[in-house]
TrEMBL record, chain A:
Organism of provenance: marine sediment metagenome
Positions of the UniProt region annotated as Disordered: 146-183
Protein name: Cyclase dehydrase
Feature: compositional bias, Polar residues: 158-168
TrEMBL record, chain B:
Alcohol dehydrogenase-like C-terminal domain residues: 197-275
Needed co-factor(s): Zn(2+)
Annotated Alcohol dehydrogenase-like N-terminal domain residues: 26-153
Keyword Metal-binding assigned: yes
Protein name as annotated: Enoyl reductase (ER) domain-containing protein
Keywords noted in UniProt: Metal-binding, Zinc
Alphabetized GO MF terms: metal ion binding
Source species of the chain: marine sediment metagenome
Amino acid sequence: MSATDQEIKQEYRRNHAARKMAQRLGWLSIGLGVAELLMPGPLARTLGIPGGKTLLRFCGVREIASGVGLLVTKHPKPWMLGRVGGDVMDMAVLGGAVLAGDKPVHALLAAGTVAGVTSLDLACARGLATEDHLVTVYDYSDRSGFPESPDKMRGRASKQSDINTAPQVTGMAAADRETQTRH
Amino acid sequence: MRALRWHGKKDIRCDNHVPDPSIEDPRDAIIKVSSCAICGSDLHLYDGFMPGMMHGDIVGHEFMGEVMEVGSANKKLKVGDRVVVPFTICCGECDQCRRGNYSVCERSNRNKKVAEKLFGHTTAGLYGYTHLTGGYAGGQAEYVRVPFADVGPVVIPNGLTDEQVLFLGDIFPTGWQAAAQCEIEPTDTVAVWGAGPVGQFAIRSAILMGAEQVVCIDNVPERLSMARAGGAITINFDEESVVHRLHELTRGKGPEKCIDSVGMEAHAARSIDSMYDRVKQTMMLETDRPHVLREMIYVCRPAGVLSIPGVYGGLIDKIPFGAAMNKGLTFRMGQTHVNRWTDDLLTRIQEGQIDPSFVITHTVGLEDGPEMYKTFRDKHDGCVKVVLKP
Ligand SMILES: NC(=O)c1ccc[n+]([C@@H]2O[C@H](COP(=O)([O-])OP(=O)(O)OC[C@H]3O[C@@H](n4cnc5c(N)ncnc54)[C@H](O)[C@@H]3O)[C@@H](O)[C@H]2O)c1
Ligand SMILES: [Zn+2]
Ligand SMILES: [Zn+2]
């Protein structure tokens, strides 16, 4: 039932897409972290987080650390899981602000954004987790479909391949003047 | 009978007690399916990107088998004939069919009104492919009703296996038309995005039509090795820059002809634009991800041709149309006019010029079909093309 297997060769494969995404999320982390670290006061006020400043500074340090981690590491998976953990924490803080803070609408909007980012983080972590699976390597270099080498086959059909010479009627012969409504 | 049916996004099941089809029009025929395949287009349904599917629709549009029953007005087919059925249903009589534009037949879509609302005009009916194209029951089943069966089906002579001819109904003519639309010159470089089944046939068609150089772009190692087997130079977009490599390979001129055999689910997290598209697609502000289109417009040599067999369903964003216009590019695209090519391609298979079975990596029973959708989509287990035996 499976592909024609010669001797079975297996390897671990990098998930490039997930790694690129991890890098981008790393930069996002750093950006957020810097904002939280440098202006915790205004942020706490906008979000209406009770007792906000210190908490936000702490979150900022955490964000920057996980961002830098993601950018420099060769093994992004644990760092990514760290980010997911951080997201949960942020949601808890914002949840508190929605319920008890004085700017529940702002906090709710922020919570929505964090939820979006969390889903990206989760997708990325899932993508990175696929790197732990062994992948069987199939070699299809014998599947040309041609009776001779591609170089020998080159141009065998060059005369007949024109899209306009294929069997079809054109001009008046093809015109349908009877049908009233055209679809 | 047994059939694969769509029950929602990522939910295709092999159901056991599906009503058998019957003749509804004197031109119909009923086919007992001997082989059918899962197509890249089916993945767009599976992933829920094509609107217009309904709970319980039978999927599949690449199939062949034996004629079981023919309607009274059908003079072409006899019970017992072995036929491949093109996925585009065509009447053979309307203005478009007469011009050979079978995939935009004006009469075969039962749900014209919906299609006209969405696209301005109707296109042909298709098997197992949404209610926008007629809502016809598909071919991943034991039996199928074939409307206008005196036009579409291709009778297969003895001596050829199912595996050799099955793809005449879809991906072989699709790859062929993709290359034919390029009007290939002997000095051309043809760049093919996507090394899936359609890309594989586009590569071989471009070689047969005499392209000096065929380049294939994908990131799946097995598929790239198959592309090389067919005569392509390959670029793994995870490992190298597509733009740079194409620049090198064409001495800075860019490929004269570009083929998009990827379509609306292009995934490439390598640049910020695909993230943007993913987000917009999830928020339903955009239905298709046009990453490949953008790249083709950028790299194509001025006055070149972009040929687009890859399927798009709705709206795309941020197309650098200024570049396309000023570079004088030609866009040619469409669902394949399958019957335009089948006679010629059947002859080529008979003469041994090409054996399309090279692309098959998995052959399973119908009951394993749902599992195979996943394997094919995720390109697991070296999967390139799946054939199901009902
Ligand atoms: N026009 C028609 O009549 C017609 C007929 C059949 C299929 N199709 C369409 O052709 C397309 C391909 O079909 P398939 O069966 O080969 O499907 P497939 O999904 O197996 O192949 C798509 C390939 O594109 C690759 N890919 C994804 N993103 C890419 C990128 N950014 N750059 C380069 N490669 C990328 C994937 O890795 C995959 O190998 C689909 O859109 C399908 O709907 C059209
Ligand atoms: Zn198809
Ligand atoms: Zn017609």
